[in-house]
Amino acid sequence: MNALNPSGWRPHKGESGGEAPQTVSGDRGLMLEEALVFEIGGMDKCGVDFDVEPGAVSGALAGHVRAAPLALAGLTEPETVRHYTRLSRQNYAIDLGPFPLGSCTMKHNPRLNEKIARLPGFADIHPLQPQSTVQGAYATIHELAHWLTALTAMHSVAMTPKAGAHGELCGLLCIRAALEAAGDAREVVLVPESAHGTNPATAAFAGYRVENIPATAAGRVDLAALTARLGAGGPEKCDVAAVMITNPNTCGLFEPEMKAIADAVHAAGGFVYCDGANFNAIVGKVRPGDLGIDAMHINLHKTFSTPHGGGGPGSGPVVLSAALAPFAPLPFVERQADGTMRLVEEEEAAIDHPGSFGRMAAFHGQMGMFTRALTYILSHGADGLRQVAEDAVLNANYVLRSLEDVLDAPFADAGPCMHEALFSDTGMAEGFSTLDIAKGLIDEGFHPMTVYFPLVVHGAMLVEPTETESKAGLDRFIAAMRSLAGRARAGDPALKAAPVLAPRRRLDETLAARKPVLTWRAAPAPPMEPVLSEIGGS
Ligand SMILES: *Cc1c(COP(=O)(O)O)cnc(C)c1O
């Protein structure tokens, strides 16, 4: 009997009240319910056979015997396997279907990546091994660094940051170190309104005051307003340390005036940070170094596959201009004159890298991501990477043009988009919104797109199909979206109840994000539904 459900059927009620079909077990078809491990395990049981009674070994513990039971669930091996397998089936994954989350670049992760990353010479090594025993791993990092600088036309790259946001911090700390070395204490970082939330957060975390750069009606940076803010007084009169610009931006548009923006910022003595999370759209086509960029993070887990679904590992190397390279963090891999590789740490750096601002990570960076990214780059080659960008842009434009007659597309008149298509909630019936489309997509078997971001568009829906979706796959998604858009325009009340086919109805996502219940508490037995809902939504 299902432990959630000892006394019979329990309805799956959500906020919107829609109810799922009833069964006694709580399972529906092959959609299986699963309780928390503590609820099915039984703390008084033990799933393991011990040779000796636990009491008999207590003398060996020098008085450090627990006073209270450990309170771990006592599952047998088959129960354990089923528990985690059932939970895993409740995930939606890129290996199951499209994941059109705008800005996240949820592309297919080629299996070749996994094969290479699992080679024992990569998978079974330890960061504290003697350097002579991990020369191949260091050479791999060095080779990837070479290709990242070649693809971006930048001077060098800091490999250690562990994600895009970490890379942003690395870039801004390089900029701050460079300005401080020049005795220039600037206080302001300019960020456009359409930016990813990590940009202003990073600038504030690095100790800067954040100011907005206004956008034009066409969704691009307002160059005139930017130059006015920088002032005509030259470097002495300017308080702007850096501008952070995303290109292509989060409206899915290329910033064509990037070079002019960079020239203006440099003339005022500031630096240009580019949020390179959208590099997927331009890899092999545009080199950021040619646009005057000083620092840019590359989300290896976006552009170079291995998408981040469940908070899995990321990697955010930061390419740097010659002006910022001396301030890059430690440690870093360097090829020595005799051809061997070494990891440059504080002791060596004090002599030949004294400007380093410090350290972003304990070791060399995210090795598993490095091997996958290098595999991806080398297996695609120059022509393959260019085609990645071209197909990603083509797919997004196919989605844009296939939906613009049923969904409002605020920048569609400005011409083609880059790798993501942006829609707003304008035109839906009274009381219907972006959320209803997103929830309806779940019933249709799709992960929803990014919603309510970027903030510059009302009820934003940001769709990023990536290059890995086939035309047939896109057509299925478009058909679902057209149906949902029609229902939202017509005000179909059934859509307000969606999702009705998923294990749960609409969850209180704000509560789940703000007050996640991450710790299981024993009695008094609470009604299970709210507890599960909160965890499920976080
Ligand atoms: C994903 C993303 C980031 C943050 O990258 P993480 O690796 O998630 O830290 C920053 N900016 C943009 C535009 C992004 O899409």
For this entry, give a set of tags:
single chain; 538 residues; alpha/beta; Aspartate Aminotransferase, domain 2; Aspartate Aminotransferase, domain 1; 3 domains; 7-stranded mixed beta sheet; 3-stranded antiparallel beta sheet; 16 helices; disordered C terminus; binds pyridoxal-5'-phosphate
Q: What does this protein structure show overall?
A:
The chain has 16 helices and 12 strands. The chain has 538 residues and is of the alpha/beta class. It folds into 3 domains: 38 residues, no CATH class; 263 residues, Type I PLP-dependent aspartate aminotransferase-like (Major domain) (Aspartate Aminotransferase, domain 2), CATH 3.40.640.10; 127 residues, Aspartate Aminotransferase, domain 1 (Alpha-Beta Complex), CATH 3.90.1150. The strands form 3 sheets. It has a 7-stranded mixed beta sheet with strand order 1-7-6-5-4-2-3, with helices on both faces. Helix 7 links the parallel strand 2 and strand 3. The longest helix has 37 residues. It binds pyridoxal-5'-phosphate. The site of pyridoxal-5'-phosphate has 14 residues, from helix 6.
Could you give a short description of this structure?
With about 550 residues, the chain is of the alpha/beta class. Helix content is about 35%, strand content about 10%.
Helix fraction bin: 25-40%
The side-by-side strand order for the widest beta sheet comes to 1-7-6-5-4-2-3
CATH topology of the largest domain: Aspartate Aminotransferase, domain 2
Query: In terms of quaternary structure, what is this?
Result: single chain
Name the CATH class of the largest domain.
Alpha Beta
Tell me the Rg in angstroms. 26 Å
Sequence stretches where pLDDT stays below 50 over 5 or more residues? 1-18, 526-538
Fraction in beta strands: 5-15%
**Number of spatially distinct domains:** 3
> SSE order in H/E notation?
HHHHHEHEHEHEHEEHEEEHHEHEEHHH
Give the second-level CATH assignment, the architecture of the largest domain: 3-Layer(aba) Sandwich
Distance between the termini: 28 Å
What's the total count of β strands? 12
Shape: globular
